[in-house]
Amino acid sequence: MESRAINFGAGPSALPTSVLQEATKGLLNFKGTASEFTAYLQSVEQNIRKLLDVQPTHSILFTQGGGTTQFSAVVLNMLARHRLLHPQLKDEDRVLDYVVTGSWSKKAAEEARRMGGSTVNIAADSRKYSKDQKSFDNIPTADAYSFSNDPALIYYCANETVDGVEFSAEENSPASFPFQLLPKNALLPLVGDYSSSFMSRPIPHLSDHAIIYAGAQKNVGPAGLTILIVRNDCIVDVDAATRLGATSVPICLSYKTLADHNSLFNTPPVLSIYITGLVLEYMLQLGGLDYYADLTNRKSRKVYDALKDGENKGIFKSKVKEGSGSQMNVVFDVLGEGLLAKFVAGAEERGMKGLKGHRSVGGIRVSIYNAVTEEETDQLISYMEQFAGQHEVIKE
Prior knowledge:
By secondary structure, the protein is an alpha/beta fold. 36% of the residues lie in helices and 16% in strands. It is built from ten helices and 14 strands. Strand 3 (95-100), helix 4 and strand 4 (119-125) form a beta-alpha-beta unit.
């Protein structure tokens, strides 16, 4: 087979070669039939449950529209739930808490404000703790958070793809999410956007979440599919809430619509679901999330070590404070006139694609999702070391 490019892009991401080969066969002949999709969808759900240890308290739903559509859907569904729980409360007294740590959580909070009908409280904003008061270069420590007493939702983004910051999986880390500070309600309205770290490691306190959502196009499949893990008490009768004064919820954004029809109310993204199912089976064969968490740790540690070496040589500069860096998306600048373009061009000559940073922040972004192998990561490390050695700034 002709040599394939190494995809370090932020999405759509790489997919395992063996999965692509199997998918090619399935496109021509899916298990000898064209009528087994419902059963296949159920198997995809069961494998998600196995990999993440999702309990029966939560439903797994499949939909379209990506994470951006969920910016709106979570607000509508959780406000409907809050209306049913507190029908007499005035709209301005309904509060939505947002933790803003990067471009995507900022966009989510902006969408909540745009929709109106409630008060948006920024429970924490990491820009306040950056060097320039503008950059998303850190995860705030626990003393930075101010949660409301009874919010309709509490939103955070586990991994910020653009800005390269991520909540730590280590609960004793200053960069971990402060679950201990959340309101002591029996059923927390906690919403986590896990799009770019989904299935790279276990999700901390999964059962405490009201909603977890993730676009498939980073770690588990092609673009077009969004996976939802919704606690059953958050699948509410949105029409009943509307009769009490809540904003009407479009039928395909209602979690109850999805749940009542087993995610088949309209034609689902069949190809994305099919390939996602193959990826999940492949993950289970390799050892599940224990295997991938170890792999992710090794790959990211190597990239950060190479980045640190390049910083010591005066060529690279991390965009993120130490301890807050993402394991999925490593971001840095290349210092020196014309060296950024030279670094990208040299990488592409070596078959390494997608390394340019997001247009809003520039620099370099190395996305090392699950399907990027350790061997491919090592090729990038070798190039980073070679480049830094060639352009080292000699300190007098």
